Amino acid sequence: MTEPTKIRKANPFEKIVAERVSDSKSQIPHFYVTAEANVSKLLKLRSEVNEASSAESRLSINDFIIAAVARGLGDFSDLNSVWGEGEITTFATVDIGVVVSTDKGLYIPVLKDLFEKNIYEISGMMSDMAVRANSGTLSLDDMKGGAMSISNVGMYGSVTMLPIINYGQSAVLGVGAPSDIFRPDEKGTPSLCKEMKLALACDHRIYDGVKATQLLGRITDILTSPEQLITSA
User: Fold this and answer.
1) Is 204 a catalytic residue?
2) Does the predicted model carry a pTM greater than 0.90?
């Protein structure tokens, strides 16, 4: 039997989220650049590292993505900036927000000062934030700051996402699930690889097309050759 139509009041959290995404989409001039990262090496490296690690120190795909974004944004420090009332603020540290889905809704805790941290430190910080998000113990300070966030829907099976910038920031990276695709190898022979679609949403007041493409290209290069994230750990 068809359920009757239900109407309910939005709860305070839902109202805040609705206001923030509406403000972001209406007030921030969004544009997007997209890329495809060959993550065959990343998936193989992650498997090898985790086989040799304890359960507490195993790395997720998201850990590699966060570390790559932190490295990329640190390399383009002028983009580690936000727009506000005719002024541009450039941050001294690389702070990255990561969207976390919980039973109570989406939270975006911000991992602080990541540029000098290795991937294992980043993984530990992310695990702690995820636990606190799910337990409802995040503080307001945990969700403040940063110029950029990451929204990874790959773990839910989606291959592409065009995200909305977190209000108060200037960019967000949408990440999809790795998918199988044939690409020509060095000899031109079709070779099966894993590719991940990336979509960078940018605030046109901070970014232009060239800067956005350069940053996304740097992140893609790191994900394609992820050994640098482990060797620097």
Assistant:
1) yes
2) yes
